[in-house]
Amino acid sequence: MPLKDMPLDQLYQYQGTNPCPADFWEFWDRQLDTTEKIPVDFTVTDSEIPHSRHVGFYDFYMTGVDGGRIHAKYIKPRIQPDKKLPLILQFHGYPGASRGWFELAAFAGIGFAVLAMECPGQGGCSQDLGGRLGTTASDHIIMGLDGPPEKMYYVQTFLDTCLLVRAAEQLPGIDAKRIFVNGGSQGGALSLVCAALNRNKIQRCAAAYPFLSDYKRVYDMDRDLVVYNGLRYYTRWYNADGARTEEIFTKLGYIDVQNFAERISAPVLFATGLMDEVCPPSTQFAVYHKIRAPKKLFLFPDYGHEEIGAFDDKLISYFTGETLQWPT
Amino acid sequence: MADIGFESFWNERRAEISKIFFQYRLEETGIETECGVYYRMYLCGIDGTELTGKYICPKKETTAVPVVLQFHDEKSMSRSWFHLSRYVAVGCSVLAPDMPDLKMESMERAIQEGLLWSRLTEILPHVRQSFVYGEGAGGAVAAACAALNPNIAAAGILYPLCCGYRTVYEKDYDTGFYQGIRQYFRTEDPEHRKEEAFFRQLEKTELLNFAPFVKQDILLGVCMEDAVTPPEAQLELFGKLSGTKILKRYEKHGHELNNFFENEWLKFLLERTDEKLPA
Fold this sequence. Notes:
Low-confidence stretches of chain B: none
Structural class of chain B: alpha/beta
Shape of chain A: globular
Number of strands of chain B: 9
Largest interface: A-B, 32 and 36 residues
Low-confidence stretches of chain A: none
Mean pLDDT of chain B: 95
Order of helices and strands of chain B: HEEEEHEHEHEHHHHEHEH
Helix content of chain B: 25-40%
Oligomer: heterodimer
């Protein structure tokens, strides 16, 4: 086994390092109550891709929790017009955009509609209205870290997934009882958080090498680079002597995926590449261990933070089975 | 074009294939979805070797469908079942051969094998039109197939290898896929006494030589930060193509997954498969 992180037997025991704020669920229940009062406002329009006899390609827009315009790609196969379709909510990696139309069409190829939300202010077309206290010169993890937690970038983005689920339930021809979530890296994180915050609305969840987990472990491993680079910038600029370390990481605990895991009710299919140098395997195991719902982990010892075709193939039977069948 | 008997060489390779009695078999994979039927494909190769690939057909089509023959890049195998399912979404079948030995030194064989697969698409049941798509080394195979098989309707090619061997050498791209060039000169001909003869050997798989024979509609993607194969030679290839052609040039992309080009390929394919709905 490769050794980019702790040995495998320790990974199987690891429970995470980052502190969890004492009022974590009180805080999130408050945010959910507030978000529940926001009316869902969305439109679906034709996209740059011409419709085919088999499938429609649409742009989806909704108003996010901060009032910004959120964009998603929406693809809907025309299989049987009278039959409601299952839907995948697909989330993308950091700091990109929803994947291409043709790549996403693979979901239509296995019989699903797909709604691929783009995170505000990243590589897609979703708007981030900003206005948060603190630096905007580095990554989104630390955006809003100097202000109240409810204004942190990822608090708002996580809540946007709640509006997305409500919008998805209202999409014509979609089976609201078969809404599933999927994604890798940031997309894996958003899948898990979306499943936790929309408990009982998300029926299946798949997540590959989730980002946004166990920030303190990342920091301790000196992996505060690439997607986690914001942690290093923030430390160098605002915590050079380490006096605020406990305070900073506790606050980051509000947006730490491992803290959401216990509330997921949907089954979770999970993938980790042991050569992952972007999101260390231990930070992923910390999430996995805290999931109480039925779950299955696939390890890919020779893969890093990259497309894992063998895992993508497992999604087919996992998502398409009328009843849950764990891939082998 | 260099006088290397290029045409006669490839005519002979074509003739070898025309003598073959196609032997293939489909094996069910156990993958079942609402829209597609998933098969493992086995094809008897020119020398009797068993070739493998993935084959997915739309499930509910009652009429013949277009098929896309998709060739993968070097150091890879056919893309995942999930990846290939995108074709079923737009009403196409897809056949994706596995080519485990895509090396510069074995490209003659790879191209002939590609041609064999392209001929197979013509005899598959419920197929009405064949398209080819390829990336990198698979792009080279796809382009050569289009040149050698006029029955192919159109092709999508992203950053093809085997394009401009001279430029590869002169611009120091002779590592990775092309390392055989540097290796040859360092070990066999350090003073370059036989340079002409060496490059003449490579002319048989030089895409610039295939280009004038490509008459179909071609969508070509060139990434200007390509560190694997020189973009200037790919632009030269585009200039030499003799059919209707579309160039998509990506200034700051390299030899990597390119969703923008995939979207263009989707549009290109939809325009040619009559699957579009009126606005």
